[in-house]
Amino acid sequence: MQPSSTSPLGPWLHRLGKWFVHQRLTASALVGAVTILCTLAMVNRVQTDGVPVDFTPQALFIDEGAEIDRLRAYEETFGREDNTVVFLVQDLPATEAGASALTALHETLEAVDGVEAIDSPVSATILVDEGGSLQAISPIADRPAKDAFTLLSSARATRRLLVSDNADTMAIRVRLSSAIDRVADLIPRVEAVEAAALTVSLPPGASIQATGVPYVRSEITQKMVTDQATFVPLVALLFASTIVVLFRRLWLGLAPLIAVAIADVWALGILIGGGATLNVLSILVPTLVLVIGVADGIHITARYREELDAGHPPAEAMGHTLQAMALPCFLTTFTTGAGFASLWIADTSVIRTFGTHCSVAMVVTFFGMLTILPTLLAWIPARKVLHPGASGAGGLAALGQLDRFVARRPVAVLMACLAMAVFAGTVGSGVQSNSRLLEMYQEGSPTWNAIKRSEARLSGVIPMFFVLETEVDDAFQDPDRLQRLDTLEQMLASEPHVLWTASMASHMRALHDILSDGSTALPDSREAIAQELLIGELAGATVPSGLLTEDGQTARLMALTADAGGREFLPLQVRLNTRARELFPDTSTPPLLTGDGMLAAAGIDRLITDLMSSLGLMFIVILATLSLLLRDVKLALVACIPNAIPLLFTLATLGLMGTDLQATNVVSFTVAVGLAVDDTIHFIVRFQDERSRQPTIPAAITATIRGAGHPIVLTSLLLVAGFGVLTLSELTSTRHFGILSSVTMVAALVGDLLLLPALLHLGRRFVRRPRSTTS
Predict the structure, then answer these.
(1) Tens digit of pLDDT for each residue in 12-21?
(2) By Cβ atoms counted within 10 A, which residue in 80, 91, 509, 681 is the most buried?
(3) Domain 1-66+248-388 falls under CATH 3.30.40.10
(4) For the stretch 577-614, what's the b/e string if a residue is b when 16 or more beta carbons lie within 10 angstroms of its beta carbon?
């Protein structure tokens, strides 16, 4: 069967296909050389800079701007709060052995390179009244263990920050160097402090667990890299076995998979070797290349077999294959790449980067599949490509029955598909966006349990704070300003997800409580405040450095919170910012509740909104591209309609799972567009080709289903099986990606083999016979 293309590119592609067969040794050498160069570029980058992935909030969700500049300025003054690894020491006995183990832990961690400071029960000082003499003591060093633990669990300075109410859980807060910003630098530091902690022997029954924001970032990064290293080969193995079974030929089945694996190396070599750093979205590029590349590879392989079955010699068959498949493969690549390129206008840098990485990878994959796969196929003897006997007849018969069913009842099929779409949209309408630190963890995992224990017993691990800036020395020794700070702190502390707060006001309140025999009021004059602060300083109880600058002009109100998520944090920020600005109209800059946790919540919310908005633009770009290249706007519109169904079913699946729309699963919607549109393009291009030869539209649809239906079903089954493997991952992000992508493929199959033919049958008077098609 010869393609009907009359484009000037047609003869050139035909000659290129024949060249791959006649010059397969030369082609193989060229493919090998490019592969070696890309591999060396990748290896050199990894050896120089480490694994090029970055999942910090700065890389993920926080762009340049006033808020991030302001946060970094505050960190210059007070230090970073998001670089604190928290060790939970559980069930430590209130004995001298327990106190000694705690001291050993503190001293061991303090000696680790890269540790900036440590707050623990060992370093804590508490102000006490000793027979009328005020003095700051270190309970662990100055009191018997049982008394020390009791004192630490009740003192305002340490209760819930370092010691739980009943002293069954203690925290050692290890602040890493503020200069450590990249995850690649963070991972070895986190590993070093964790390894050091595990060298300390604890009394029987006691245990230690690392947690905190940097620990979670490091662990997630390592797990995601491990997932890629584990599941990509596993999926490739499953793909290989499935393709071999369905093609019933070993080397023929392996050829598209080997080709896409080499194309993956090319794409990663160009990206990583070129200096790209992958983030939580673009880490999926290898999977996207595998998915989209193998789909095109199966279509090319199936067409090559079809040409050989028609009696063409291998060189001629390869020429016809490239002539016929260049356009649909170009369309799948170009529309997907153009869709990803449309993300360049997004507000968040992570989406722009994701769009760039995917666009580059799609272009590389296109050229890879049109060069690597023909080279591999050229080495397979024709007799090992042809259908073995009557193989595939059953599948073609089933597709024929489906074709006849849709032809007889196109209206019923259309209404059924629309009903399913409405149902899916209704189920998914309640899904809301959210973001949490633990969103990638399964409930019950060690890190999940540690964070939850920290929230239940202590103060949580997510920091946020207000900074109140004035131009007046010792501004917060003014009783009115101090009272306003106390009011704001009480408001913050009353929020249900805020577990601990600290400020100059609460320090002053604790000091005044001791000096005035239990008074709960703040001092009512500047002189009284200054006097009490001096008494506290002489006793060894100064205002913590993180709460007030040396000149007294700038104060900070600190908070630690539960992992409530952006849905809770963002309204909280709005409420408290409004109230803070009412309380402090005299600050040099308007008060702002900030911190990496808060900016990450706001950034993720923007990211999700941005990415979902970009999906609409992706559809517009895809429609425009199809209209231009197919030269038929009506046909392009028809082709776009079935691609909305997978998105609705993906959303409905989230609703049925009771899962929020998070940064880690919103990528599935982008993948859904790419997966859905690819098979649709193969169907539409084949239909347009058949329409130029067949006498009627129903005949063209039948010929299209017979020719393109089998590889469409094959790729769909293949990808469902491959994505199913991802559900075995420990990370919910990978599990959800597997589930949602599998649902996408099933919904796309329904759209391509039921809804799309029904639309073509019903719109036959609008579908014109093409005059020519490009290749």
Answers:
(1) 999 999 999 9
(2) 681
(3) no
(4) beebeebbeebeeebbbbbbbbbbbbbbbbbbbbbeeb
